[in-house]
């Protein structure tokens, strides 16, 4: 799994972000805000993601604002830069958020 820890260039990050709507790149981090119906859903979502974060050995900065959560992804072991693993984790966050949203719209 270590081959996904190479630092990406600004150009590589910009290109990849085209496939990640809503994600932005600033201060050597990719980030996105997700909105929920209430605080409990925010906490539940984070708790659901925790096993993945541990498995991937990637623990994002997480900022909770009542009904919103912001994930900031960068890899501290490579000097606080963005790697392929950050995008893998972003994809997993997106997938789980979409699945959660699909369940709530049924």
How are the SSEs ordered, and which strands pair?
Elements: H1 10-17, E1 24-26, E2 29-35, H2 39-56, E3 61-65, E4 68-73, H3 84-104
Antiparallel strand pairs: 1-2, 2-4, 3-4
Task: Walk me through the structure.
By secondary structure, the protein is an alpha+beta fold. It has one domain (2-104): Transcriptional coactivator/pterin dehydratase (Gyrase A, domain 2, 2-Layer Sandwich), CATH 3.30.1360. 44% of the residues lie in helices and 20% in strands. The chain is built from three helices and four strands. The protein has helices at 10-17, 39-56, 84-104, and strands at residues 24-26, 29-35, 61-65, 68-73. A four-stranded antiparallel beta sheet has the order 1-2-4-3. A hairpin with a 2-residue loop joins β3 (61-65) and β4 (68-73). α2 (39-56) runs antiparallel to α3. The chain is globular, with a radius of gyration of 14 Å. The termini are far apart. The model has no long low-confidence stretch (mean pLDDT 92).
Throw out a few tags for this protein:
single chain; 106 residues; alpha+beta; Gyrase A, domain 2; 3 helices; 44% helix
């Amino acid at each position: 799994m270590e081959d996904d820890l190479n630092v990406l260039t600004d150009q590589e990050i910009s290109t990849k972000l085209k496939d990640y709507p809503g994600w932005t790149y600033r201060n050597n981090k990719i980030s996105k805000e997700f909105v929920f119906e209430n605080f409990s859903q925010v906490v539940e979502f984070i708790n659901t993601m925790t096993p993945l974060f541990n498995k991937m050995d990637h623990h994002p900065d997480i900022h909770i604002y009542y009904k919103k959560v912001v994930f900031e992804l960068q890899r501290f072991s490579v000097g606080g830069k963005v790697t392929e693993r950050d995008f893998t984790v972003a994809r997993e966050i997106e997938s789980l958020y979409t699945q959660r949203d699909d369940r709530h719209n049924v």
